[in-house]
Amino acid sequence: MNESNVIIELNDVTIRYNIASEKIYDLKEYAIKMLTGKLHFKEFFALNDVSFQIHQGESWGIIGKNGAGKSTLLKTICGIIDPYRGSVKAEGYIAPMIELSAGMDSNLTAAENIFLNGAILGNSRKFMKTHFDEIVDFAEIHKFLETPIKNYSSGMRARLGFAVATIVKPDILIVDEVLAVGDFEFRKKCENRIQELLEGGTTLLLVSHAVNDIKKLCDNAIWIEDGKVRMIGDSKTVCDSYMESGKS
Question: First and final CA of the chain: distance in angstroms?
Fold first, then answer.
């Protein structure tokens, strides 16, 4: 592949947070300590000098322990978080599934949230009306369309979010642990749709603690540890090395 096929590129990306050295329980206490110079911070690097390229149509899994920086990496690629240092390029239409409730209002019904989430993803109301039944069929929420999604289980929210996010063929599909909350039949439907999208040229980034899912759906993998790239390569080699590290 040539450089013109690069759809995601990170160069020396660093994400830094300032964390208060002590707990602050209210805004007044925070303001007093800030004004009197008694508020001290510690630097925390969620990502540190991360660099890699992903080409159009490739499938990548991202693995690592909790707190390693996986979700921060996805949010950086989506443009939710700006890097403290380095540069990020992500081209085309991105369909992010980073949090189950992202783009949804828990007090609105599922039907209302379909249009709300669609609008946030850049789809017109006319488009969402045209594909409304298709979304409902995929999510299997026919009986609960007029139910506020605050009453939905995490699995039902996942079905709804995935159905809306993938109704359009995105250039980049980003999935963070969503498959983990679904039942077997839902997971299979999602896997089938992901395969269809990949065959159509969509680029996949999948975060999962289930290395078998990474091996099945992704050709490549990145192992993130303490905010740094520990290993990058084909998914089987990277996943096997990651699992072996947990045995030592």
Answer: 37
The one-letter amino acid at 196: E
Assigned token pair, 209: 């603690």
pLDDT in tens, 176-190: 876 666 677 888 888
One DSSP character per residue, 30-43 reads: HHHHHHTT---EEE
Beta carbons within 10 angstroms of residue 142's beta carbon: 10
Partners of residue 60 on adjacent β-strands: 205, 220
Identify residue 156 by its one-letter amino acid code: M
How much is the pTM?
0.82
Whether 118 contacts 127, CB under 8 Å: yes
Taking alpha carbons only, the member of 14, 166, 6, 121 closest to residue 76 is 14
Task: Give the chain's largest Cα–Cα span.
Answer: 59
What tens digit of pLDDT does each residue of 79-136 get? 989 999 999 999 999 988 876 566 788 899 999 999 998 898 888 999 999 999 999 9
